[in-house]
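Quick review question:
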């Protein structure tokens, strides 16, 4: 019996996939098809796969060509599968020509002619007709976003707007974009706005973008008042537009996995969460000189609030702020303490005090620790009473990590579900806490 194996994502199953499987089956007597997991696709930079693993496996099964369907979860698995299943022929499409020649020592390698003019990438692009993105703001984060946007298919950076024409021109030249000095013209040429302007301008820009019928990705904090955040989401919903707050940690695979493990019962009931993020800033930067909108909490608060709101929810009994203030009245270091019905939490952040930037989640059976930079979660450990028992988890976190929120955003555009990994309610709760902090600061 000749055993054949092939692999693929098989997203949005199409005729190219069908013909590949048909010919793969004809090469032998028994065909094994490996279908990639979401995590594996993410790790190799394929971020906007539309169909779930279950759907993709079902579609392969429906062809009737596969005698066995397996899951491909990691690099290097092909080699071990060939040995494990006693494979005679490994086959893939001709787009991979030469890439798997290293397997020739173990079995025959056959590259089948790829079917012309069809691919999952093309089908995804067709589904996602809304994809010209315009950038508002030209700071560091906007540059990082440009790099990341290029790593995700289905999105096309178009133009940039900033009220300062010189900055706009410089940014446009650097990233090969159209510069705009009029917001009206800018909105007319785009489908999606990415708002990366100073914090206090987010609300007005997001509102304007939504009112012009544009979907929006907004840097954190979306708004500094609860009512403003709510108004923006209501406006998006009424116009059937997608609005996403870019707290990048919320969308990255490692943090998603961490939440899953924390809530799985492994560490029992969660009783305490401590999140800390400090970043020593040059005292001359906007973050430490803008007396109205600078300071540690407005800058870093979204990150440290995230795990607390995710793990304990939005209904806390008590909230308390304590800060170390600089001479200009900005908080150099802030601690927010929460009391929940069944637990405690602290969110700590600093721009002028350095501390160990850890995330600790304590439960009745054990605890989870994520060392800095936990906000780019790629590794964490689960510990128990027995110090010898430690479980270790790793997940990819690629480059600046904004690609995860961009791909989540694109996936939502297709479905109109607005069901983001950072929910509307969580974004509104964060704005409410920012507002409470600013009120407490006013009161002294
Ligand atoms: N394939 C093919 N003809 C096509 C598209 C895919 O023969 N027009 C083959 C690939 O070479 C591979 C298998 O089908 O052996 C699964 O490919 P996959 O990567 O899932 O599909 P693509 O359409 O190439 O996906 P993408 O656009 O995301 O790369």
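Suggested answer, residue by residue:
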């Amino acid at each position: 019996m000749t055993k054949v194996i092939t692999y693929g994502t098989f997203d949005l199953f199409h005729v190219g996939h069908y013909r590949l499987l048909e010919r793969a089956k004809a090469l032998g007597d028994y065909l094994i098809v490996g279908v990639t997991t979401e995590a594996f696709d993410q790790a190799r930079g394929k971020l906007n796969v539309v169909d779930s693993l279950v759907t993709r496996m079902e579609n392969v099964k429906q062809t009737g060509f596969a005698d066995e369907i397996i899951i491909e979860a990691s690099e290097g698995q092909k080699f071990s599968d060939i040995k494990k299943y006693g494979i005679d022929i490994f086959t893939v499409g001709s787009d991979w020509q030469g890439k798997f020649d290293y397997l020739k020592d173990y079995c025959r390698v056959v590259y089948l002619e790829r079917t012309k003019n069809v691919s999952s990438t093309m089908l995804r692009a067709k589904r996602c007709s809304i994809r010209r993105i315009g950038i508002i703001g030209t700071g560091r984060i906007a540059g990082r976003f440009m790099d990341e946007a290029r790593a995700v298919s289905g999105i096309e950076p178009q133009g940039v707007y900033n009220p300062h024409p010189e900055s706009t021109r410089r940014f446009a030249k650097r990233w090969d974009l159209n510069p705009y000095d009029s917001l009206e013209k800018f909105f007319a040429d785009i489908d999606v706005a990415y708002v990366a302007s100073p914090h206090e301008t987010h609300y007005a820009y997001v509102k304007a973008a939504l009112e012009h019928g544009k979907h929006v990705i907004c840097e954190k904090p979306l708004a500094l008042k609860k009512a403003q955040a709510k108004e923006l989401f209501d406006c998006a919903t009424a116009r059937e537009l997608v609005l996403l707050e870019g707290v990048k940690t919320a969308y990255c695979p490692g943090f998603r996995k961490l939440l899953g493990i924390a809530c799985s019962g492994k560490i029992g009931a969660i009783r305490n969460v401590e999140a800390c993020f400090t970043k020593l800033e040059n005292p001359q930067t906007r973050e430490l000189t803008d007396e109205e909108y600078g300071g540690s909490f407005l800058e870093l608060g979204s990150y440290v609030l995230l795990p607390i709101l995710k793990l304990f929810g939005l209904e806390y009994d008590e909230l308390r702020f304590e800060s170390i203030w600089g001479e200009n009245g900005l908080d150099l270091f802030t601690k927010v303490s929460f009391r929940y019905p069944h637990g405690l939490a602290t969110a700590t952040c600093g721009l002028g005090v350095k501390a160990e930037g850890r995330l600790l989640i304590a439960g009745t059976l054990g605890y989870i620790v994520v060392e800095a930079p936990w906000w780019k979660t790629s590794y964490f450990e689960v510990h128990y009473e027995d110090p010898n028992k430690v479980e270790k988890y790793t997940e990819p976190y690629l480059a600046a990590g904004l690609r995860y929120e961009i791909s989540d955003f694109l996936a939502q555009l297709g479905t109109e579900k607005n069901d983001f990994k950072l929910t509307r309610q969580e974004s509104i709760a964060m704005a409410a806490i920012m507002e409470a902090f600013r009120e407490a600061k006013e009161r002294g």
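Why it works: The pocket of cytidine-5'-triphosphate is lined by residues 8-11, 16-17, 20, 92-93, 95, 114-115, 118-121 (CB under 6 Å). The chain has 15 helices and 19 strands.
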